[in-house]
């Protein structure tokens, strides 16, 4: 690719980004006005529910995601609540909302205990009128982000048939004892395999098998000598680091604040408002 072509592509990307921002801002302004010109009621707040981490990079990533959601959807109230380890904790965020409406969007990649138990219990103890959106995964936008991170790490989008026969990917995820979490991660692995044209084997940092080293050994025994690790984590942290250390070749960065992640967060928010999912029960008052 020539320098001129590279600059042209960069200019196109920048122009597309600006046009997307203008379109989103215009849509947000129009959404606040009814057909008769009267103001519409404020949209429910979006509460981004993160797990929490002792790694400061995780909180920085989540805050960047929040800012990009606000840029993409001006006028939408966007808040943050953590399940544990970081402030603000979700119960404190919900308490500050009073009895207002909110959609809780988990920054989690599959079904599991946090989605099924922790978040609903915290929501039920608050006055806020809440809905719980689906976890982020599985979804094609996650596969788009995983693919982009692999390419950034050195994965070749074009390879010979011989190279493809010796290549594979380990999809490194956090892990859960909930079988539906493994089902969701497995579906993401299949979607990524379809996108890459090579085998993708799920592996886990804890609570489930196989581990990343075990997955690497399985693929190596199948003749796969170029094995990349795709980090199926929303942000940097201990699990992502440990999985990366087990990579025999390249390791992709975590999903982070990729533009597709912003799109997916807003999609889950919108989807919750248009679905038939019942609002979560609020705190019973005497």
From TrEMBL:
It comes from the Bacteria. GO terms for molecular function: lyase activity; metal ion binding. The keyword Lyase applies. Keywords: Lyase, Metal-binding. Signal peptide: none annotated. Pfam families: CbiX. This is Sirohydrochlorin cobaltochelatase. It comes from Streptomyces bottropensis ATCC 25435.
């Amino acid at each position: 690719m020539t320098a001129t072509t590279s600059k042209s592509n960069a200019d196109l990307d920048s122009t597309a980004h600006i046009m997307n921002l203008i379109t989103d801002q215009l849509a947000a302004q129009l959404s606040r006005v009814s057909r008769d010109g009267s103001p519409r009621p404020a949209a429910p707040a979006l509460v981004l529910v993160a797990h929490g981490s002792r790694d400061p990079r995780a909180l920085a990533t989540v805050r960047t995601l929040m800012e990009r959601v606000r840029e993409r959807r001006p006028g939408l109230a966007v808040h943050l609540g953590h399940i544990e380890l970081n402030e603000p904790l979700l119960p404190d965020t919900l308490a500050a909302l009073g009895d207002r409406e909110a959609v809780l969007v988990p920054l989690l990649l599959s079904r599991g205990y946090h989605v099924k138990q922790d978040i609903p219990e915290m929501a039920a103890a608050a006055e806020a009128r809440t809905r719980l959106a689906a976890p982020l995964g599985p979804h094609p936008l996650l596969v788009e982000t995983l693919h982009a991170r692999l390419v950034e790490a050195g994965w070749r989008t074009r390879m010979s048939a011989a190279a493809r026969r010796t290549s594979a990917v380990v999809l490194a995820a956090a892990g859960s004892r909930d079988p539906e979490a493994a089902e969701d991660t497995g579906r993401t692995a299949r979607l990524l395999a379809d996108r890459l044209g090579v085998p993708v084997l799920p592996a886990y940092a804890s609570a489930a098998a196989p581990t990343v080293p075990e997955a690497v050994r399985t693929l190596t025994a199948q003749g796969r000598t170029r094995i990349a690790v795709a980090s199926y984590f929303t942000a940097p942290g201990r699990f992502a680091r440990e999985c990366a250390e087990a990579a025999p070749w390249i390791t992709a960065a975590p999903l982070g604040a990729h533009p597709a992640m912003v799109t997916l967060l807003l999609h889950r928010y919108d989807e919750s408002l248009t679905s038939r999912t019942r609002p979560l029960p609020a705190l019973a008052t005497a």
